[in-house]
Amino acid sequence: MRSKRVIGCAIVALLVLPDPGPASANPGPPTAAEIGAAAGHVSQRQAQLGNSRKRLSAADAELARLQTQAEVLTEHYDEAVVNEQRAQAGYQVTLARLASAEQAQRSSRQRVAGLAAEEFESSGGLGAVGVGAASAMVGDTHGPDAYLSGLSLGQLLAQDGTDTLAAKQANDVVANVFRTQAHNLLAARQADLRAASYLKLAIQAAVARQQAFVRADRDAANRAAAALATAQSHEAALRAARQAALAAAAARQAAAAARQAAVAGGPSVSVEAPAWSSASGASATQGDVAANWALGQLGKPYLWGGTGPGAYDCSGLTMMAWAHAGVQLLHWTGYQWIEGPHIPLGELQRGDLVFYATDTSDPATIHHVGIYIGDGTMVDAPYTGAFVRVDSIYRPGLIGAVRPAG
Question: Most buried one in 272, 274, 290, 374, CB count within 10 A?
Fold first, then answer.
C-alpha cells in the first residue's frame, strides 16, 4: 500500500479561488440579539394567530348553533303556514255554517212574526189591542221579537207558538256560536303565523350577522397566518445569513491556513489507501438505494459542510445517500476516494461515486464527488449558490470512480 495525499472539495476550492479579502469588506452578519428579536416577533405572531383561530372557532360554533335554530324555527314557520291554510279552509266552512244558521234565524223570526199577527187578528184586531199597540209592534226598531218579548209571549201564544219561539232562540244561539268560532279560529291562526314570521325573520337576520362575523374572523386569521409566515421567513433569513457569514469567515480562515501551509511546503492531509478487491464493493441493490435517495434530494441548496436534511455539500450528499444503503462513509472526498475499490468508467453502475480533481494525475487535488445514476449522469451538490442537481459525469477534472465497500 502507498500513502496518498488527498485534499477535500472544500479546501482545494478555496486554494484555487481568489482571496476573498478581509472580513471587514463584507457586511457583518445578523447578531444573536437580532435573531432573538426576530424569534420573539415570531412568537408574538404565533400567539396572535392562535387567538384569531380561537375567535374563528367560537364564531363558527355560534353560527352552527344559529343555523340549527334557524332550521327549527323555519320548520315551525312551515307548520304555522300549513295550520293557517287549514284554518282558512275551516273558516270558510264555518262561514257557510254561519250563513245557514243566519238563514234559519231569519226564518224563525218570520214564523214568530206570523204567529204574532195571527194572535193579533184572533183577538179582535186593532180594536182589541189598540191602534197604538199595533203600531208599536210593527214599528219597533228591534222587530216583532222585542215587542212580543214585552207582552209575555208565553201568555199570548199557544203551544205551537211556544215551540216556534224555542226554535228561534236555538237558531240564535247556533248562529252566535258559529260567528264567534269563525272569528276566534281565524284570529288565532293568523296570530300564530305572524309570530312565526317574526321569529323566522329574526333568526335569519341573526344568522346573516353571524356569517359576517365569521368572515371577518376568518379574514383576521388569514392575515395573522400571513404575518406569522412573514415573521418566520424573516427569522429564517437572518439565521441563514448569520450561518452563511460565519461559515464564510471560517472558510476565509481555513483558506488562509491552507495557503500558509502550501507556501511553507508542508503536507496536506495524508491517508493510507487500503487494497480493495474489485468484489468488495457494495451490491447493485445498495447502489440503487443510494442513487434513488440522492434523486430525492434534487433542488436542495448547497451548504458548506451540509449533511441534510435541508442542504448538502458534495461529500455530505454522497455520505448520506450511502448511509441509506447501509454503508458508512466519512464526510470528506479524500476519505471517500479510498473507501472502496476503484471502478473503470466503462463498468460504472448506479450508486458508484465519481470524483473530480484539479489535476487528474494527482488524487491529492480531488475537490468534488457525485453519485452515478446511469446514462452518463450523476446527482451532485456543485457549489455555494447552486442546488442539488443532475449533471453529466463527462466534465473537466474527472479522475475516477469508486464503489463504496459494503
Answer: 290
At 29-47, the pLDDT tens digits run 788 888 889 899 899 999 9
Please give the span between the terminal C-alpha atoms of the chain, in angstroms, as a whole number. Answer: 21
CA distance 317 to 85: 81
Dihedral sign computed on CA atoms, order 24, 27, 33, 35:
negative
* pLDDT above 90: residue 288: yes
- Which residues are within 8 A (CB) of 154 and not within 5 positions of it... i.e. 6 or more apart? 162
Let me know if domain 3-21+273-402 sits in CATH 3.40.50.2020. no
**Which residues face 372 on adjacent strands?**
378
Residue 301 in 3-state DSSP? Answer: strand
pLDDT at 159 over 60: no
Give the residue range(s) of CATH 3.90.1720.10 domains in the chain. Answer: 3-21+273-402
Residue range 102-126, pLDDT digits in tens: 787 788 778 777 777 776 666 554 4
Are 114 and 230 in contact by the 8 Å Cβ rule? The answer is no
Kindly tell me if the per-residue pLDDT of 259 is higher than 80: no
Task: Give the pairing of strands 398-402 and 366-374.
Answer: unpaired
Phi/psi for 355 (5° steps) reads -115, 155
What per-residue confidence (pLDDT) applies to 197?
Answer: 80
User: How many other CB atoms sit within 10 Å of the CB of residue 337?
Assistant: 26
Decide if 164 contacts 108 (C-beta within 8 A).
yes
Q: How many CB atoms lie within 10 A of CB 146?
A: 12
The span from the CA of 124 to the CA of 169, in Å, is: 28
Q: Please, what's the b/e burial string for 77-108 (b: 16 or more CB within 10 A of its CB; e: otherwise)?
A: beebeebbeebeebbeebeebbeebbebbeeb
Give the Cα separation of 99 and 174 in Å (integer): 11
Per the CB < 8 A criterion, the answer to whether 48 and 244 are in contact is no
User: Which part of the chain has CATH 1.10.287?
Assistant: 49-224
pLDDT at 263: 59
Please write the tens of the pLDDT for every residue from 336-359: 999 999 999 999 999 999 999 999
Question: What's the pTM value of the predicted model, to 2 decimals?
Answer: 0.39
The answer to whether domain 49-224 has CATH 3.10.20 is no
Q: Is the pLDDT reported for residue 131 higher than 60? A: no
